[in-house]
Amino acid sequence: MHLYDPVQQNTEEALNEQIEASAKLRVGGISVQSREEISRRIEELDQEWDIERWLECNASFLAFSGLLLGLVRNKKYFIVPGIVLPFLFNHAVRGWCPPIPLLRRLGIRTRREIDHEKYALKALRGDFSNVVPQGEQGIHNIAEQAWEAARP
Q1: What is the DSSP string of 107-139?
Q2: CA pair distance 80, 56, nearest whole angstrom
Q3: In Å, what is the CA distance from 121 to each residue of 35, 44, 52, 131?
Q4: CB 131 within 8 A of CB 124
Q5: Considering only CA atoms, which of 96, 84, 86 is closest in space to residue 57?
Q6: CA 89/CA 19 separation, integer angstroms
Q7: Radius of gyration (C-alpha) of the chain in whole angstroms
Q8: CA distance to 50, 58, 102, 139, per residue, from 84 (Å)
């Protein structure tokens, strides 16, 4: 982890390493595929929800539900947004809130982690000039070189 990422800083190092190793394995596995398959995987990565999107979606759902239930059922439900919103604020400021450990264990990645895999695949596809074409090295070396070229 070269750049500061609050979510990664607040995640167990072993889990960060596991998430990175999984992405690196995927890059290595697709390195033997066609340019079309690599492009398809890049498109999938463009659609992948990062941890911020998961948190925003879940927090807004809980807060809105609490407001709605507070209006139509019982005012005690107003406590739900009163709890959820400060946690969301804490996440914005410090990079941590209660769902983060669970989401990380489920493999939900940060945008930076997703982009790292995406740019490694772009390097494999030949989008960047600093990665040697596949015919000049072994497949494993190409995947490793692409992974390192995409490192933030």
Answers
A1: T---HHHHHHHHHHHHHHHT-STTS--GGGS-H
A2: 15
A3: 10, 12, 23, 11
A4: yes
A5: 84
A6: 25
A7: 20
A8: 19, 9, 16, 47
User: Is pTM, for the whole model, over 0.90?
Assistant: no
CA–CA separation, 62 and 60 (whole Å):
5
For the chain, what percentages of helix, strand and coil (3-state, to nearest 5) are there?
Answer: 75, 0, 25
Quote the CA–CA distance of 8 and 2 in Å, as a whole number. Answer: 11
Q: Which residue reads 């982690």 in tokens?
A: 113
Q: What is the pLDDT of residue 1?
A: 44
Cα 129 to Cα 98: distance, rounded to the nearest angstrom: 42
Residue 32: strand, helix, or coil: coil
Series of mean pLDDT values for 10-residue runs along the chain (152 residues): 78 96 95 95 98 96 97 97 95 92 96 95 84 55 80 75
Taking only the tens place, the pLDDT of each residue in 36-72 is 999 999 999 999 999 999 999 999 999 999 999 999 9
DSSP, collapsed to helix, strand or coil, labels residue 24 as: helix
Structure tokens at 32: 């033997």
